[in-house]
């Protein structure tokens, strides 16, 4: 493990993994609680259009992806609120529109299109110092907002009607959740890629839910599992020579499988202990 730190690119990769591993589940918990687990996929497809636009114009793809993803997140909330469109339909429209826009722009990008794979599937070992600074700023912003607004975000995700009656501006915080998810996706796209980023936002949360009974406990455990999956995935990919993005996601899925198994064993043990002894 320590020998990895001898390589400058691995130090940058591990730093990016720490930021991504903490940030993705931090906002992903609210998406799962709000039953918008696939929102990350939809916004990721819109971010693809932003990446393609950046490659086409010679602008930093990370910045154009932030803008495109944020606009896509706002579009989802506006469709759900004002157009009487259900959440799954709004997400489907975002999927199709984002993917179509990205593919169309890539056709005009020429040789730059070859760089697209690093954003689709992640390329954490190619993260530069400037990339890391941008990721750190965006990730820090997301975490700061989440920490400051956790009670309000939880209220909106748990029961919108009750939150509205309590004076919480539900629409505003709904938009905030979507925007934070958009920023998080652009933070994580160099780590796990746009096609897999939703997994790092959702799977650690699903794993934490297997053993935690409170929202706070789920939130904290999901962040810890996301951190372990991101860092562990980078280290494992270096050791066994695999792509970091899929390795990170598979490690998160392994955590889910283990904790789901633990929950199953505990449940069965409790049932057996609660049964009366059979005579005979």
Task: Describe what you observe in this structure.
- The protein has helices at residues 8-33, 39-57, 61-82, 87-106, 116-120, 129-158, 160-165, 170-188, 197-209, 215-240, 244-274.
- The protein contains 11 helices and no strands.
- The longest helix has 31 residues, at 244-274.
- It has a domain at 2-194: ABC transporter involved in vitamin B12 uptake, BtuC.
- By secondary structure, it is mainly alpha-helical.
- Helices cover 78% and strands 0% of the residues.
- Helix 1 (8-33) crosses helix 9 (197-209) and helix 2 (39-57) crosses helix 8 (170-188).
Quick synopsis:
The protein has a domain at 2-194: ABC transporter involved in vitamin B12 uptake, BtuC, CATH 1.10.3470.10. Helix content is 78%, strand content 0%.
Topology-level CATH name of the domain at 2-194: ABC transporter involved in vitamin B12 uptake, BtuC
CA radius of gyration is 20 Å
Please outline the major beta sheet: none
The arrangement of helices and strands along the chain is HHHHHHHHHHH
CATH H-level superfamily of the domain at 2-194: ABC transporter involved in vitamin B12 uptake, BtuC
Structural class: mainly alpha
| CATH top level assignment of the domain at 2-194 | Mainly Alpha
- What's the shape? globular
In total, the number of strands is: 0
Average pLDDT works out at 80
Q: What percent of residues are in strands? A: under 5%
Compile the SSE list and pairings.
Blueprint: H1 8-33, H2 39-57, H3 61-82, H4 87-106, H5 116-120, H6 129-158, H7 160-165, H8 170-188, H9 197-209, H10 215-240, H11 244-274
Helix pairs in contact: 1-6, 1-8, 1-9, 1-10, 2-3, 2-4, 2-8, 2-9, 3-4, 3-8, 6-8, 9-10, 9-11, 10-11
């Amino acid at each position: 493990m320590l020998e990895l730190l001898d390589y400058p690119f691995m130090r940058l990769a591990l730093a990016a993994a720490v930021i991504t591993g903490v940030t993705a589940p931090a906002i992903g918990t609210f998406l799962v609680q709000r039953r918008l687990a696939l929102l990350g996929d939809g916004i990721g497809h819109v971010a693809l259009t932003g990446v393609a636009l950046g490659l086409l114009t010679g602008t930093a793809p990370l910045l154009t992806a932030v803008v495109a993803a944020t606009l896509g997140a706002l579009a989802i909330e506006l469709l759900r609120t004002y157009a009487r469109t259900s959440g799954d339909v709004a997400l489907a429209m975002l999927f199709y529109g984002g993917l179509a826009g990205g593919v169309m722009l890539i056709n005009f990008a020429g040789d730059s299109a070859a760089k697209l794979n690093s954003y689709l599937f992640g390329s954490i070992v190619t993260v530069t110092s400037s990339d890391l600074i941008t990721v750190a700023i965006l990730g820090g912003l997301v975490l700061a907002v989440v920490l400051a607004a956790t009670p309000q975000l939880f209220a909106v995700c748990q029961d919108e009607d009750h939150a509205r009656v309590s004076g919480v501006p539900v629409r505003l915080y709904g938009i905030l959740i979507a925007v934070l998810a958009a920023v998080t996706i652009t933070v994580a796209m160099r780590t796990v890629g746009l096609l897999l980023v939703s997994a790092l936002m959702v799977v650690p949360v699903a794993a934490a839910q297997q053993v935690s009974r409170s929202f706070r406990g789920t939130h904290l455990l999901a962040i810890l599992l996301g951190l372990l999956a991101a860092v562990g995935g980078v280290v494992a990919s270096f050791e066994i020579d695999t792509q970091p993005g899929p390795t990170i996601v598979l490690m998160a899925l392994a955590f889910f499988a283990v904790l789901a198994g633990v929950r199953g064993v505990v449940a069965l043990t409790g049932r057996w202990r609660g049964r009366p002894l059979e005579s005979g």
